[in-house]
Amino acid sequence: MPSTNFELRRKLLQLEALYDVGRALSASRPENELLEEVVQRAIATLDATIGFIFSLDERLEIQQFYGFGLAQLGDPSTLLAEPPVREVIASREPISVTVSKFAGQAGSEMLLAPLVAGDTIVGVIGVGGKEERGSRSGSFAEDDLRFLSSLAAIGGAAVDNSRRFHRLDLAMP
Less CB within 10 Å around the terminal CB: N or C of the chain? Predict the structure, then answer.
Protein backbone atom coordinates (compact mmCIF):
# COMPACT_ATOMS: atom_id res chain seq x y z
CA MET A 1 0.00 0.00 0.00
CA PRO A 2 2.82 2.55 0.59
CA SER A 3 3.62 2.27 -3.11
CA THR A 4 0.05 3.33 -3.90
CA ASN A 5 0.29 6.38 -1.63
CA PHE A 6 3.63 7.27 -3.19
CA GLU A 7 2.16 6.97 -6.69
CA LEU A 8 -0.83 9.12 -5.73
CA ARG A 9 1.44 11.81 -4.28
CA ARG A 10 3.61 11.70 -7.40
CA LYS A 11 0.56 12.13 -9.65
CA LEU A 12 -0.72 15.02 -7.56
CA LEU A 13 2.69 16.70 -7.75
CA GLN A 14 2.67 16.34 -11.54
CA LEU A 15 -0.82 17.83 -11.85
CA GLU A 16 0.07 20.71 -9.54
CA ALA A 17 3.23 21.38 -11.57
CA LEU A 18 1.27 21.49 -14.83
CA TYR A 19 -1.29 23.84 -13.28
CA ASP A 20 1.40 26.09 -11.80
CA VAL A 21 3.48 26.27 -14.95
CA GLY A 22 0.38 26.95 -17.05
CA ARG A 23 -0.44 29.92 -14.83
CA ALA A 24 3.16 31.12 -14.70
CA LEU A 25 3.63 30.95 -18.46
CA SER A 26 0.38 32.69 -19.32
CA ALA A 27 1.99 36.05 -18.49
CA SER A 28 4.07 37.82 -21.10
CA ARG A 29 7.68 36.96 -20.25
CA PRO A 30 10.97 36.82 -22.14
CA GLU A 31 11.65 33.54 -23.91
CA ASN A 32 14.72 32.67 -21.82
CA GLU A 33 12.70 33.00 -18.60
CA LEU A 34 9.96 30.78 -20.01
CA LEU A 35 12.45 28.08 -20.94
CA GLU A 36 14.13 28.16 -17.54
CA GLU A 37 10.75 27.89 -15.77
CA VAL A 38 9.69 24.88 -17.86
CA VAL A 39 12.90 22.88 -17.42
CA GLN A 40 13.18 23.67 -13.70
CA ARG A 41 9.64 22.34 -13.20
CA ALA A 42 10.48 19.22 -15.20
CA ILE A 43 13.67 18.54 -13.24
CA ALA A 44 12.04 19.07 -9.86
CA THR A 45 8.88 17.11 -10.58
CA LEU A 46 10.60 14.17 -12.29
CA ASP A 47 13.56 14.02 -9.84
CA ALA A 48 16.02 14.30 -12.71
CA THR A 49 19.74 14.96 -12.24
CA ILE A 50 20.18 16.60 -15.63
CA GLY A 51 17.92 18.67 -17.79
CA PHE A 52 18.03 20.94 -20.78
CA ILE A 53 15.72 22.96 -22.92
CA PHE A 54 16.35 24.98 -26.01
CA SER A 55 14.32 26.95 -28.47
CA LEU A 56 14.84 26.75 -32.20
CA ASP A 57 14.58 29.38 -34.89
CA GLU A 58 13.04 28.76 -38.31
CA ARG A 59 16.37 27.29 -39.56
CA LEU A 60 16.29 24.76 -36.67
CA GLU A 61 19.25 26.39 -34.96
CA ILE A 62 19.36 26.92 -31.22
CA GLN A 63 18.11 30.37 -30.29
CA GLN A 64 17.93 30.15 -26.47
CA PHE A 65 19.32 27.44 -24.17
CA TYR A 66 19.09 26.52 -20.51
CA GLY A 67 20.82 23.47 -19.04
CA PHE A 68 21.18 21.91 -15.61
CA GLY A 69 23.76 19.28 -14.65
CA LEU A 70 25.47 19.21 -18.04
CA ALA A 71 28.97 20.10 -16.84
CA GLN A 72 30.74 18.67 -19.92
CA LEU A 73 28.63 20.61 -22.44
CA GLY A 74 30.55 23.41 -24.12
CA ASP A 75 28.59 24.74 -27.07
CA PRO A 76 24.84 24.04 -26.72
CA SER A 77 24.53 23.60 -30.49
CA THR A 78 26.34 20.25 -30.12
CA LEU A 79 23.08 18.91 -28.66
CA LEU A 80 21.62 19.05 -32.17
CA ALA A 81 24.01 16.22 -33.14
CA GLU A 82 22.88 13.91 -30.32
CA PRO A 83 20.83 11.02 -31.79
CA PRO A 84 17.87 11.30 -29.36
CA VAL A 85 17.59 15.04 -30.01
CA ARG A 86 17.73 14.51 -33.77
CA GLU A 87 15.00 11.86 -33.46
CA VAL A 88 12.69 14.17 -31.50
CA ILE A 89 13.20 17.03 -33.95
CA ALA A 90 12.57 14.76 -36.96
CA SER A 91 9.57 12.91 -35.53
CA ARG A 92 8.11 15.69 -33.34
CA GLU A 93 7.21 12.95 -30.90
CA PRO A 94 8.36 12.46 -27.29
CA ILE A 95 10.73 9.57 -26.61
CA SER A 96 12.10 7.58 -23.70
CA VAL A 97 15.57 6.22 -24.39
CA THR A 98 18.59 4.85 -22.57
CA VAL A 99 21.87 6.21 -23.91
CA SER A 100 25.43 5.13 -23.19
CA LYS A 101 26.72 8.69 -23.55
CA PHE A 102 25.03 12.08 -23.85
CA ALA A 103 26.57 15.54 -24.21
CA GLY A 104 30.00 14.27 -23.18
CA GLN A 105 28.72 12.60 -20.02
CA ALA A 106 27.95 9.07 -18.95
CA GLY A 107 24.63 7.91 -20.28
CA SER A 108 21.38 7.36 -18.48
CA GLU A 109 17.71 6.91 -19.09
CA MET A 110 16.38 10.04 -20.76
CA LEU A 111 13.03 11.53 -21.62
CA LEU A 112 12.81 14.06 -24.46
CA ALA A 113 9.85 15.96 -25.88
CA PRO A 114 9.40 18.55 -28.62
CA LEU A 115 8.04 22.03 -27.98
CA VAL A 116 5.58 22.48 -30.82
CA ALA A 117 3.41 25.46 -31.75
CA GLY A 118 0.94 24.73 -34.51
CA ASP A 119 2.94 23.04 -37.27
CA THR A 120 6.27 24.42 -36.09
CA ILE A 121 8.78 22.86 -33.73
CA VAL A 122 10.06 25.67 -31.51
CA GLY A 123 12.30 23.66 -29.18
CA VAL A 124 13.17 20.49 -27.30
CA ILE A 125 13.19 19.63 -23.60
CA GLY A 126 15.02 16.68 -22.09
CA VAL A 127 15.66 15.23 -18.64
CA GLY A 128 17.77 12.31 -17.49
CA GLY A 129 19.33 10.57 -14.54
CA LYS A 130 16.27 9.78 -12.43
CA GLU A 131 17.01 9.97 -8.71
CA GLU A 132 15.73 7.22 -6.46
CA ARG A 133 12.80 8.40 -4.30
CA GLY A 134 10.41 6.67 -1.99
CA SER A 135 9.71 3.15 -3.14
CA ARG A 136 10.80 3.91 -6.71
CA SER A 137 13.99 2.62 -8.21
CA GLY A 138 16.07 5.08 -10.19
CA SER A 139 14.04 4.83 -13.39
CA PHE A 140 11.32 6.99 -14.85
CA ALA A 141 7.72 5.82 -14.58
CA GLU A 142 5.65 5.16 -17.66
CA ASP A 143 3.58 8.31 -17.22
CA ASP A 144 6.62 10.57 -16.70
CA LEU A 145 6.99 10.90 -20.48
CA ARG A 146 3.35 11.95 -20.74
CA PHE A 147 3.97 14.59 -18.06
CA LEU A 148 7.05 15.90 -19.89
CA SER A 149 5.11 15.96 -23.15
CA SER A 150 2.30 17.96 -21.52
CA LEU A 151 4.83 20.37 -20.05
CA ALA A 152 6.45 20.72 -23.49
CA ALA A 153 3.06 21.49 -25.07
CA ILE A 154 2.48 24.31 -22.58
CA GLY A 155 6.05 25.52 -23.09
CA GLY A 156 5.75 25.45 -26.88
CA ALA A 157 2.61 27.59 -26.78
CA ALA A 158 4.25 30.00 -24.32
CA VAL A 159 7.37 30.40 -26.50
CA ASP A 160 5.20 31.00 -29.57
CA ASN A 161 3.13 33.60 -27.69
CA SER A 162 6.27 35.30 -26.40
CA ARG A 163 7.68 35.52 -29.92
CA ARG A 164 4.43 36.89 -31.34
CA PHE A 165 4.20 39.48 -28.57
CA HIS A 166 7.83 40.49 -29.17
CA ARG A 167 7.19 40.91 -32.92
CA LEU A 168 4.08 43.03 -32.21
CA ASP A 169 5.99 45.07 -29.66
CA LEU A 170 8.74 45.78 -32.21
CA ALA A 171 6.15 46.73 -34.85
CA MET A 172 4.51 49.32 -32.60
CA PRO A 173 5.68 52.92 -33.19
Answer: C
d(C-alpha 126, C-alpha 144), whole Å: 12
Q: What is the helix (H) or strand (E) element at residue 158, kind and residue range? A: helix 144-171
pLDDT at res. 1: 40
pTM of the model: 0.83
pLDDT tens sequence across 34-60: 899 899 999 989 999 999 999 999 999
Residue 94 to residues 33, 41, 104, 111, Cα–Cα distance (Å): 23, 17, 22, 7
CB 28 within 8 A of CB 165: yes
Cβ burial, residue 14 (10 Å; 0-12/13-18/19+): buried
pLDDT for residue 136 is more than 70: no
